[in-house]
Amino acid sequence: MAYITIREYGEDSFIEKKSEFIGYAKRVENEEEAKAFVAEIKSKHKQARHNCWAYIMGIQRYSDDGEPQGTAGIPILEVMKKADITDCAVVVTRYFGGILLGTGGLTRAYTKGASIALKAGGVVEKVEGVNISLHLDYDMIGKVQYFCGQNNWHIEDTEYTDKVIVHILAEVTVADEIEKEAIEASNGKITVEKSEEGIYFKEDNRLYKIL
């Protein structure tokens, strides 16, 4: 399992020809959460002319909320689809400034509103990960740091006691490769322990706990 979503709640805004556009993005687990998020933003901005939205989590839904058909909900949805984002809801609120934007202007504005909201939320990959602990003698630490660096495996923490314990939080798909590399590099002297697997965020070569 691996897919793209956002790390956290995101919010950003801009002004386009006196209209204020406010983009909101939230990670959601199901349609009920998505609908609740849309309702929350609508309640927050009851005086706004439009609260347009879209969400994806296996299913896809969107709404132009009174804007000309195809100028708001679909552009928001397309931003999410192009980024391969799922388990996410986006709402773009518009306070009308008195100047008409036209269909092209509206499409660009709602596209921008969705984009800045997702950027504020932080686009990340969601993956299955496992904590790998390497137990080794002090004279092996250089070799471990070397092969981790060569393979772009991030060392999360290192404990120094009577032995050295190197902690690597890695994707499940590379766990066996890390174990094999550690055993081969040490001629079997490194002891490898794997903790219970979990779901994590991935950015570059690092995994993070999901909050």
Architecture overview:
The protein is an alpha+beta fold and 211 residues long. It contains 5 helices and 12 strands. The chain is 32% helix and 40% strand. Strands 1, 7, 8, 9, 10, 11 and 12 form a 7-stranded antiparallel β-sheet that branches. A 5-stranded antiparallel β-sheet has the order 2-3-6-4-5, sandwiched between helices. A hairpin with a 2-residue loop joins β11 and β12. α2 packs across α3 and α4 packs across α5. The longest helix is centred in the middle third of the chain and has 20 residues. The model has no long low-confidence stretch (mean pLDDT 93).
Please supply descriptive tags for the structure shown above.
211 residues; alpha+beta; seven-stranded antiparallel β-sheet; five-stranded antiparallel β-sheet; 5 helices; 32% helix; elongated
Strand content: 35-45%
What is the average of the pLDDT values?
93
Q: Outline the biggest β-sheet.
A: 7 strands, antiparallel
Computed CA radius of gyration, to the nearest angstrom? 23 Å
Q: Spans of 5+ residues with little confidence (pLDDT < 50)?
A: none
Q: What distance separates the N and C termini?
A: 18 Å
**Helix/sheet category:** alpha+beta
- Helix content class: 25-40%
Count of DSSP H/I helices: 5
The number of E-state strands comes to: 12
Order of secondary-structure elements: EEEHEEHEHEHEEHEEE
Shape: elongated
